[in-house]
Amino acid sequence: MYIEYCRDQKAADVENTTDYRLNAVAGKYRPTWLIRSSDWKTVPGKEAVNGYCALSYCWEQSGEIIRDEENGDEYKCIDKGRHRITELVKRRRGKRRYRRKPAVVKHVTFEKLLQKLCNDFQIEYLWYDKVCIPQEDKQARLREIRQMYRVYGDACYTVALVPEIKARHANDFKRYDPLFGIKARHLALAIMVSTAWWKRSWTLEEVLTSKRILVVGTNLNFWQHSLNSEIPTTIDNLSLWMLDLGGRHGDKRKSVNQALREAHFRTSSKQHDKIFALANVFPDMFNHMEISYSIEKKTMFNTFYQTIATNDLSTLCFGSPLEIDGRNSVPSAMDAHNLPSWTGVHGLHTIDNVVVATSLQSPHRITDSMQLHIVSKYLKIPVIQYEVPRTNEASSELLLTIDKVLARRRAGQSDHLTNAATDNNDALLMETRADMLHHSFCNATHYHQCRQITGTQRPKPLSLTENCEECIILPILFGCSAADHELHDAKLRTYTLGQYQHQYLFPVFKKCQSTGRYRAIGIFLENYSPVGEKFDPHVYLDQFVISSMSNDVQEFVIE
Questions:
Q1: Are residues 317 and 218 in the same domain?
Q2: Strand partners, 66
């Protein structure tokens, strides 16, 4: 595939970010090799004293992809110089009047296009995997792949090349947008999530490990940085949780569920790459994992999930992938791998950082047959399925309630909109559905009337991947931390991070009648705390176990 780059780029930013971009500070790490943009020579990384940028792009957009007959299943890219650089030029029409007219299209190679882009955005050094990672030396190649989290994490910023993004109308840069400040940015973000770049496993890793990003389309670009920064910015998927994953916490804490939320819906030309990309997001877990395409695919996937679940049970922190109206708009890309339910591949993981607290009789373990064994007390609860809204009016009513809940949360009011003693059950159910979506970014599918837990009539929501009438809750508590967002500039729609609100979720399991074993099927929202309240999931779990769980102990085999 060949792409087009227009040098007359328009920035879809609510304010001029050029100075911030040019003064972005790189980390201490330098890649082994970089490209010097002035002459497009490969030079040692240490030459880039003032930093470098890293390129994120889709390989198939760099030329024609053909099968490599010598290497069987391997593919290679042939660049015949058909990429296009366009530039608008001014032509005199009168004494003081000019009109803009497209210049003749210049056909170039992908690397020439990159060089021109670097010149336009004043990028002195660029890390570009095809050149900076040795392609023939397999050992050197794998060694460099292991360092990619550092390459993107310590770059001044990442340049994401997304040619599908285009400016359509000049007025879009002038029209106000209530979410993103200007209409052009809103449209660009809407296009971005449907592009090839957004759907790839490697580009997910590159974004999660980057601190700042410049997204460059055909004729439009926009800048974004993480909300973890003290600099105000607009709220979108990039700034909210993807960029600088875990960076909002002083100890750089990040939980597996955050990466799996997107990873299970990403694709790659080689199935192994899904694992290699994710392993780079959590280098401390996988520093001894062998990265080799010769390892059998099933072995690679099993080893990966065994490792993450042994280290972090937030793999169980997932809910239903369905929309409010029951549609599954984005199917999982992992269905073909026949993975167990506790990996969460059939659900949608929660978005916020999770602290896992457990009260098990012995450490959990995972067998070679991929069965998760947990010995613990338990709580058995009946659940009822919510009615799925069948009309647009019903969906709109639910969304309106969610907006009311969000407004109260932003105002620091964590109390309920409804009164359990006086309001009818329909009103209570509507609010609990809003609570689940607000606190987990997963839609509620079931509820529990919870008399045996709290003694009240207020239902509590569950988000499940399977229907059931009775389920099991184990003493594994997910303490989720979600930052409140403080409006910085109402006109520009920019925000900063505020105080944290905390949610308490439990994984939910369903017994399989045919085998007597269990399946992980979702999450139960037990409670949430007001903004700024002290957060200690271990203390909360101890109190919950004492007040709610039976003294019976059982071994649960989850498959």
A1: no
A2: 76
Q: Within this chain, do residues 234 and 259 fall inside the same structural domain, yes or no?
A: no
Residue bearing tokens 């109190």 = 543
Picking from 517, 462, 453, the residue whose alpha carbon sits closest to that of residue 318 is 462
E-strand ranges in 297-428 read 318-319, 348-349, 353-358, 365-366, 372-376, 379-382, 384-385
Residue 221 CA to residue 291 CA, distance in Å, equals 35
Single-letter amino acid, residue 170 = A
Which pLDDT value is given to residue 251?
44
**The two three-digit tokens of residue 514, written as one number:** 């045919």
Burial class (CB in 10 A: 0-12, 13-18, 19+), 491: exposed
**236 and 258 inside one domain:** no
Residues present in the chain in total: 559
DSSP letter, residue 314: G
Whether residues 292 and 165 fall in one domain: no
Contact 52, 155 (CB under 8 A): yes
Pairing of strands 157-161, 212-216: parallel
Encode pLDDT of 220-259 as tens digits: 999 999 888 888 898 888 988 788 887 654 445 688 999 9
Q: Which stretch of 79-93, 334-348, 352-366, 400-414 has the lowest confidence by average pLDDT?
A: 400-414
pTM for the predicted model, two decimal places: 0.89
208 and 347 within one domain: no
pLDDT of residue 9: 92
- If one counts the domains in the chain, the total is 2
Whether residue 262 sits in one domain with residue 206:
no
Closest CA to 130 of 226, 60, 213, 197: 60
Token representation of residue 248: 């909002």
The answer to whether 282 and 148 are in contact (CB under 8 A) is no
The residue range of the domain holding 343 is: 250-389+437-559
The residue with greater pLDDT, 107 or 486, is: 107
Query: In angstroms, rounded to a whole number, what is the distance separating the alpha carbons of residues 164 and 174?
Result: 21
Across residues 411-422, what is the average pLDDT?
60
Same domain, 380 and 511: yes
Residue 409 placed within a domain = no
Instruction: Judge whether 419 lies within some domain.
Output: no
Residues 291 and 154 in one domain: no
With beta carbons less than 8 A apart as the criterion, state whether 519 and 558 touch: yes
Question: Phi-psi category of 370—alpha, beta or left, where left has phi over 0 and alpha has psi -120 to 50?
Answer: left
SS3 138: helix
Residue type at 30 in one-letter notation: R
pLDDT of the residue at 224: 94
